[in-house]
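sorry to bug you again but im stuck and you know this stuff better than me. what follows is a protein written twice so to speak, once as letters and once as structure tokens for the fold. id like you to explain what the token line says about the fold, in plain words if possible. anything you notice is useful, everything is just below.
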Amino acid sequence: MGLRIGFISDLHWPKVKNASDVLEEVLSIRPDVVVLTGDLAHKGAIKEKRFRFICEWLKRFEREEIPWLAVPGNHDVGDHPGNDRYSRETLRTGLKHWKRWIGCSYRMLDCGSIAIIGLNSSLFGSDTKKEARQWRWFEQTLDGLGDRELILALHYPLFVYDPENPDPDLYWSVDAESRDRIYRLTERLRLRAVLSGHIHRSFDHLWRGIRFIGGLSLEDSLDPVHPATGWQMVMVESDTILTQRFARPVHDE
């Protein structure tokens, strides 16, 4: 039996206009788990009260007994140091808000034969004690996976253009050092997929047997060819991964 993941990203509350409708749609379809890859509260790192709505969203999943995992994005806790918007103070404040309303910014969801690990990609390259603790936790958690398959979830994609070479603009992706460290730590495991958000357009790349799946944004689209907003279902089977988009063309809004 496969695992059905409701994949939601870049809500940007309160900018999104149909948040309640999307929630009801996800609940009606009832995925096995829900994974949210960041930017849930627009400018939440400096406007803490916006997390109140996100907290209520997550409580609805709990009441319906649907497990969830959420990782923060740059709007939730601040940008990573790879771009000129980085602020150590914003990161510190944003992490405080996230912990108060959501919980730990990195954790694992045990789905039987599959483990979903969410990482806080805003910590990558920050050279902070919090980043070091996340790396230690990640390594220890990987050591305890046994023969379980692995899915990673993070806000910044590991790459936009090339999985082996740095992206020209680090606003859009993880820095090369952190990305390569993740590759090294997971190479002995069966890493099935990496789910990410941030770039406000869906993508689906295959590299070394790993699926890299980018999430639609619920708020707006940065896809110049097929602009759409929405969410996705990721269906993990024993021999394949299928995706289904629940999307709305931007011009229909």
Notes: The mean pLDDT is 93. The CA atoms of residues 81 and 126 lie 6 Å apart. Residues 129-143 form the longest helix (15 residues).
